[in-house]
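Subgroup meeting minutes
Present: P.N., E.W., G.H.
Scribe: E.W.

1. P.N. recapped why we're keeping a running log of single-chain structure predictions: easier to compare across weeks, and new members can see raw inputs and outputs side by side.
2. G.H. added today's entry (360 aa).
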Amino acid sequence: MLKKIDWYIIKKFLGTFFYSIALLSVIIIVFDVSEKVDDFIENDAPFNKIVFQYYMNFIPMFINTFSYLFTFIAVIFFTSKLAMNTEIIAILSSGVSFNRLLYPYFLSALTLTIMSFLLANFVIPTANISSREFKDQYIEKLTKNKDQHIHLQISPGTFAYVESYNAFTNTGVKFSLEKFDENRSLVYKLNSAKMVYDTATGKWNIFNYYIREISSKGETLRKGAQLDTLINLRPSDLFIKKEVFEEMNYFEIRDYIAEQKMKGNPNILDFEVEKHKRVAFPFATLIMTIIGVAISSKKVRGGIGLHLGVGIALAFLFILIMQISTVFAVSGNLSPGLAAWLPNIIFGVVALYLYLRSLR
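Output recorded in log:
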């Protein structure tokens, strides 16, 4: 059963969190508008799209990105005030254990953790589809063509090659498709001068094609001017869209990684790191809450200022470790899973140490 002191702490915790993040959201939006106003004017971005398509979808992403940071600051801020007013001492002196004191903090942090998980994996990816469409049209181009000579495995034993592809016209030059049997013997090969994707039918239009089929009975050859065909190849496989994982929920990222591994695409480390971060990131809220309570629950000389200084330093150290581990995962040999969880592991040890110290 929650008691009055529990509700008091929960209201202080969540109230401080949402107030601080709402205040900073307004400040960030003002700075972002001042930075992008030239792009908005130059590209004639409509006001209603700026507000509702871009910034209304920007707010959930901002809240989630800095949720653990503001959780930490909120905990330190109001807990330090309780400690300076000797309220923490009064609570503990009345027979309440430190573990019992942590209970309302844990409930609040768990609520924010669940909120962060749902935002990161389901709400924000949906919102990003609209905001990225606006960004691509009015701020910066997110789509660019891949380098030439694109090789892909589109299904087991089936390989596609495109010399070059234009994402804006959905046109590929010098396309070939090869199929091999279980003995790795060539059984089918298609060559064409050009391929064009029909967005209405989802089919590829193949021009000036030449098909060679090999079987136990011999070879058959045929050619033609045009052929409409279904191929397990999507236009998105042939061009690069910057940070496209922002538009994918957790299950879509997972399926995309499996599909690209099957196609032999080695450039999926960003997606693997993102998939693990979608799970690891929310748990930082719980860890930072424990650290925040352990640091700020004791009355010290220097008061709230000292607690906030230590807290902000630890928060930015967490961000630094997260960025470094991500770089090593993408550019080095660090496992994507370890890269995503490394900040939580390090600060989890710190949280455990501070927690055990607070029990003394």
